[in-house]
histidine kinase (Azospirillum cavernae), 571 residues
Amino acid sequence: MNAPDHSGEHLLDGTIDPPVTVEGTLDSARLYRDQVMSIMPGLLVHRGEDILHCNEGLAHLLGYLAPDDVLVLPSVMRLVPDDALFSERQAYDQCLSGLTRADVRRTKRRRADNSVQWFDQVLEPIDWGGKPAVMEMLAQVRPHIGFTELPHQWQRLQAAIDAMPNGVLMLDREGRMEGLNSELLRLWDYPPGLFPPGTPMDVMLRYNHQRGDYGDCTEDDKISEIRKLFQVKGVINSERRVPSGRVLDIRTAPRADGGIVVTHVDITERKRIEDELREAKERAESILEELRDTQQQLIVQEKMASLGQLTAGIAHELKNPLNFVNNFAELTSELLDELLSLLGPLDNRLDQDAQAEAKDLVSSLHSNLRKIADHGRRADNIVKSMLAHSRGGGGEWQRTDVNPLVEEALALAYHAVRAQDREFNTSFIRHYDPNVGEVKIVPPDISRVLVNLFTNSFYAVRKRQQAEADPNYHPTLTIATSDCGDKIEIRVRDNGVGMSQAVIAKLFTPFFTTKPTGEGTGLGLSLSYDIVVHQHRGRFDVASVENDHAEFTITLPRAIPAVSLGERRKP
C-alpha cells in the first residue's frame, strides 16, 4: 500500500513542502482551485458567439462600466486576444458539448482599453433557456502560496516572466522548478497551482506521460530521454505538438549557477504558413509540370496536325491519277479482249510461230494490266489509309459493352483472314472479365483498333507457322479483358514471330512496317495509337519476345474529361 503524500502541506516553520508525486501536484492544483473559487467574482454566460449574461463583477474585471457594455459586444471572442483564439474556441466547444474540467485554466482576456490581462478561469456547461450554454467564471490571478513565501526579488522576477510573450520554465541545478509563467501554463494547458516552486522536473514529466502526451512509450525511458535532452544547450525537442494542438519550439539556456531556463515559443501560426507555402509550392510545381506536359502535347499536336494536313493534301492529289490508272487499266484490258475477238478470224492467216508470238504478247499484256490494277488498288488502299490517318475520328461517344465489342472485332478479323487464306486456322483463349461492363468510347474507332491488332496477330502466327513447319506448333491467340476500377484493360497476345526491341521502338511511327512490300502500309498501328492515346486518353503498351510471343495492352479510362489539351487532333 502506498504511503500518503503529504507534499504541498504547510510545515511548522511556515514553509511549504513541494509535491514529489503526480498525486501531490494534483492536490496542489485542487487547493489552488478552491482558493480561486472562494473569490470568483466574474460571471459570463454565452453560447456560440452570443453573450447571454454578464454580471457586475466581470464587467469591472474587464474594465467596462456596466454589464450592458459587455452584452452589446458583437461576439464573445471579442474578449479573447488573437493568439488565444484557437485554444479558447476548443475549450468552449468541449464545454458546450457537456465536457467538464475540474481544474482552473490560466487564460488571457482583452480589456475595454484593448490591454491584455491574465485571469484564472473555470468553465462549466449549464442549461440556459432550455438550451446548453457555457458559464465562464473569471478571477484575477491569485499567487500560489508557495510563491508568496519567496523573497521579494523572486516575486518581482515572477511578475517579469509572467509578462513575457513566451512560455518560461526555470529549473535549479537539481532539476527542481524555481518558477514558471502564465504563458507556459496556457501553452501546455496546465492547471494553475499544479507545479509550485521546488517541484521536481520528473513530476512534471510523469504528469505529462500519465495524461498521454508521450504516447505508449515506457514512462521511465521517456523521462530519462528528456532529462538528457535538458542538458543539451540550445534545444530539447525543437518542435513539439502539445495536447492543445499547438506547435512549440522548445529551447534550453544554461545559467551560470547551474540552473536551466527553458523557453517555449508558440510557432503554430508559423508552421501553418510554412505548410501552406509548401503546399502552394507543390501545387505550383505540379501545375508547372502539367504546363510542360501540355506544351509538349501542343507541340506534338501541332506537328501531327501539320503532318495530317500535308498527308491529306498529298493523298487527295494522288487520288485522281490513281483513279485514272485503275480505270484505264481495266478499260485497256477490256479493249484488248475486244481487239482479240476482232482479230480472231485472222489467226488462220498466220503461221504457227507468228500465232505463238502473238499469244505470248497478248499474255504479257494481260499480265501487265493485272499487275497495274493490283498495284493501283494497293496504292488506292494506301491513300485511303493516309486519309483516315489525317482525318481522325468523327464518331459519337457512346456507352458500349466492351466484351461483345471485342468478340465482334475478333470474329470480323478472323473471317477476313480466312477469306484470303482458307487453310489458316488458330486457337482462341478468351478471358473476358464480366465486371468490365460498359465504357464510354467511340465504338467504330476502338473496333478498328481491335481488328487491326487481331489481323497483325494472325499474320504473326501464320508467318511463324510457315517459317518453322513444326507440327507441334499451334497458333494461339489469347484475348483478355480486365476491370481495373477507374479504367479497363484489353490484352491481345499471340505466340507468333514476336518483335525485337528495336522494332518495338518504331512500332507506332507512321509508315513503319515489318511486312514485305505489298502486305502492309505502316499506318495501322500508328492510327490505332492515335485513337487509343490521343482520342481516348488511354495507354497502348507492347511487350514481346522474338519467336515466342507479342502482347498488346490497351488501357482505357472509364471517364473521359470533357475538355483536354491532349485531345486527338481534329480535321
